[in-house]
Amino acid sequence: MKRFLVGMIMLSVLAFVATAQTKDIKILHDNPEFQKYWTNAGEASGKEVGIRGVSTNYETEVYQTKVKVDLTSSSAPAVFKWWFGFRAYSLLKAGLVADLGDVWKEVGSNYAPGIKEALTIDGVTYALPFNTGYWVWYYSKAAYAKYNLTLPKTWDEWMKQLAFLKSKGVYGIGNTIGDSRWTSFIVFEEILYRLDADFYNRLVTGKAHYTDPEVVKAMQIWKDLIDKGYMAPNDVNYTTDIPRMVKEGTIAYAPFGDWYSGILQGQGLKPNKDYGVWIPPAITPKGKGAIVLEISPLMAGKNSPDLASAKKWFKWYASSKSSADILWKDLKWAPSKNVSPETISKDDPTVTDEVELLKAYPKKLIRYWEATPEEIVEEAVAQWNEFRGGSTDKYMDQLKAIEAKAKEIWPKYGVNNY
Q: What is the mean pLDDT of the chain?
């Protein structure tokens, strides 16, 4: 009995020492649907390198404000998920984000060429990729099987198919207001660059206007889709309702970044059984060969008292096989080379299908959310939510409101001839 008690005491002491040696760091994000991953990753990093990521999530609007405030103080998060491009501009300009160049020197070989450069501004690399993904459309295998449909090859064929599905009581496009206002830019973006990809680039860089004919045409096409009843009901949630409707065959398409595959699987759907991946055809020849790319970055707060620990965590995140395995298992993402093509093909054949599809789309466009100044995006999102909410006849007023904001904001970014 005495020996047993001594043994128990020793185990308790060892457990206490192990706990004392584990450093907790603050990780912030705005995706409650990803919380399982962050919990699992945090526990794994604690065990493997003694840096445990303790994560908290917030609704996107609250999150943006909180992070901007916290970064200015000693409450700055050690690690936080953000957006790059113009969304990061104010944070970088204010010197609130840490340089991760020293981390990249150790882990760069784990990533494909071009990723580091995409996360570098003025020679400083500020982030590691959380997700690197293309914006594609997921379609319901149940709907296609029930009505013996094949994927349309032209825009006109697609419009006829949407009309047919509507006649059968199937919603065409799963883009809604739901509980996430940010999603309102998706359909506008998807239409505009399929009309004219080069014009899209000019618009987001301040070289074109929201009242130009190309934008008006995009709004008219979008209005037509809404007015004809091809869109899902506005109260539908994209993380739970749309996956269920895709599985049931009561909605045909869901336009999202390829991170959405993980959400679909998290709701019990099986790739290439319940859903497939598709890229809609161009509307005009000027939209051919273009696709939208999104890089979701992880950054570190420069003012965080745990910055050194954050960098140690980043090295684990980028290099550890277990880190990559957790990210793949929980979210079906593989931003690094640490998940084999064989594993990807076996676990999620839609990713392999997507890679094959992307060969026909050499022109990569930055997602609207990051590609243009945040102030303009926020005005546009507000106007487009109003548009989606039933004010489709007021689209010119909404475009004029966005144009007025663009005219106000672009000079702040050095575009003085807007």
A: 92
